[in-house]
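Entry 14. Structure prediction run on the chain below.
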Amino acid sequence: MKYLFTLKMFIFAFLYLPLFSCAAEKEQADDIKSTEEPAFFNHYDSDRKSAFDPYILTPHKMSYFLPISYTNNINKEAYEGEGNYGAKLNNIEAKFQISLKVPLTRDTVFTKGDRVDFGFTLQSWWQLYNHDLSRPFRETNYQPEIFYTAPLNWKPAGGSTNLIVGFEHQSNGRTQTISRSWNRLYATLTFAKNNYAVSFRPWWKIPEGDKVTTPEESGNDNPDITDYMGHFELTGAYKWHELEFVLAGRRNFKEKKGGIELGMTFPLSGKLKGYLQYAHGYGESLIDYNHYQKRIGIGVALTEIF
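Output returned:
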């Protein structure tokens, strides 16, 4: 009887304990899942783990290459002082963006999970198919910035939030009448939940005076830039199955000017993703800050939105 009881206990343990174990693991997994960060914030954790690896480049904003980018209204007026350059510009060109960041802090600054980073973003519009002009880079924008990121305890509607505060300089590296640059302080509040995120990014342009640049003397490259670029940007991102969407809009309500940009990534092969981009309004580049146009481009995404 003793051995029969032992055999029964062994059979019971063999058949039923794994079920209890799986149930406990599932319950624990559900608890972990309920406290996980939304998909949009996941990259902050992975960035922190790899940021100090000298062999890993950490992405900042989205990076992409659009070999075909078409505009209905290429900006020729901006190059009137550059001989016949503007008249020869093509409406079809290539566009790309590369954006990276480097951590400046390893430990906590003010609160758990916060950090300070240096970021650099380069955007370029390349007259790749313009043989008459020897395929020049029509416009290149350089954007270095330093910013502080901190997660917030505010979790409205069961989502997560974070705050970014920073300073950035943006210029096209040109001189005199085709020079464009500005400096601004900004703050970004982002709310994310599940597979979507919304961020609000107001900024303040650091004053430079109202003196306009002329061919003979340098002044303020673009004293009215906020009339066209506005004072804020509102961005929404959404992931649906294997598609990712992002929509960003800027607006100056007083001047009734601004611009929007819509991006969509889609699977191509393996981890390679395609990228479709549409822009409408002012400020697609610094040289075009006061130039209205519609632009559409297609290519590949080098980083993901989520």
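The CA atoms of residues 242 and 270 lie 12 Å apart.
Filed with the rest of this week's runs.
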